[in-house]
Amino acid sequence: MADLFEKKADGNYISILVSLCHPFSRGSVHIKSSNVDDKPVFDPNYLSHPLDLEILARHTQYIEQIVQSEPFRSLLQPEDRIPAVSITPDLKDPDVARRIVRDRLFSCFHPAGSCSMMPVELGGVVDDQLRVHGTSKLRVVDASIFPLEPRGNIQATVYAVAERAADLIRGNSIAD
Prior knowledge:
By secondary structure, the chain is mostly helical. 30% of the residues lie in helices and 3% in strands. Helix 2 (50-67) packs across helix 4 (94-104). The longest helix has 18 residues, at 50-67.
């Protein structure tokens, strides 16, 4: 993906990207073995939900409408676009937009939700006290408890979860 941001010549550049803030696709993280040195198996499973691809393709088409409108149209140099206009003659075609999404997809990489705070029946791993269902003395305190990925950077939300976990562990309630 380095070619997306590679400066080809002197001049002014603009990057216009689409982002899927709340993906419906679900990946997985699994323990590979009992050896603590073995990294877990991580499968982000991008675009496994058809709605994710459709949303990104339609956003790509919308961005194309914007850049084909003035003043963008007269300011942008089509031969320097990625993907080049000559490669994608008709972004009005949904199949072309979907192909571009599949070919150019990359992640902002804020994985979350692998240990979602939900009831077990819904696939949850932790309860509202951050305790792992079916265990004792085990809590999860990180972004993996988010059932949905927060929009934007997740750091502040993780801090809030950590503060709440500290209160829970100390035995303080919200009212304290």
